[in-house]
Amino acid sequence: MRERHEAHGARRAREFEAFVAGAAGRLLHAATLLTAEAPDDNPRARRLLTLALAETYASWDGLRGEDPYDRARRGLATRFAHSAWHRYGPLGRHRPHSGSVLAGLTPQERLILVLRLYEGVAEEQTAALLGLPAQRVQAICARATAALLDPPQDPAPTALEAKVAPS
């Protein structure tokens, strides 16, 4: 009995390691987009990914045909939403990296854009995951996309500001 349990644990660990080897890069990139951190300096994204993968591993035996990538992606999304929208924990108190294109978006806009455009999650699935009406998800996605395609321009300095500015 003990040997069968150990064999099951070893098989479970191998399966999960194979999953992580194949999916961790894409999931980390998604987490980095969510947190709007620099790709080479992304501790919040790595923490978010670690927590999502730990949750996926804990439920590994209960997946029963469910896609583990989808489970991990949902874990990323729900953890990010909970921490960023409600300002709880270390993920919600951080300002996005100012060099990121996504830094100008709200956390909700980033989450919807990442799910819809980067991950290719259907509008209805995104809405169900976030507990929002599909029309709201569509409107937020359109607004965020427009903001990325046509960012607000900083006003040019006036002639008076140009003369007063120290050289």
Q: Can you walk me through this structure?
A:
About 3% of the residues have low confidence. With 167 residues, this protein is mostly helical. It has eight helices and no strands. The termini are far apart.
* Main sheet specs: none
In terms of quaternary structure, the protein is single chain
State the order of secondary-structure elements, H for helix, E for strand.
HHHHHHHH
Radius of gyration from the alpha-carbon trace, in angstroms: 20 Å
Quote the distance from N terminus to C terminus.
Answer: 80 Å
Structural class: mainly alpha
Strand segment count: 0
Shape: elongated
Q: Output the number of helix runs.
A: 8
Task: Assign a percent range to the helix content.
Answer: 55-70%
- Kindly estimate the percentage of residues that lie in beta strands according to DSSP: under 5%
Average per-residue pLDDT, rounded, comes to 86
User: Ranges with pLDDT <50 over ≥5 residues?
Assistant: 88-92
Brief write-up:
By secondary structure, the protein is an all-alpha fold. It has helices spanning 2-35, 43-58, 68-86, 89-92, 107-118, 123-130, 134-149, 159-164.
Please tag this protein with its features.
0% strand, mainly alpha, 167 residues, single chain
SSE order and pairing:
Elements: H1 2-35, H2 43-58, H3 68-86, H4 89-92, H5 107-118, H6 123-130, H7 134-149, H8 159-164
Helix pairs in contact: 1-2, 1-3, 1-5, 2-3, 3-5, 5-7, 6-7
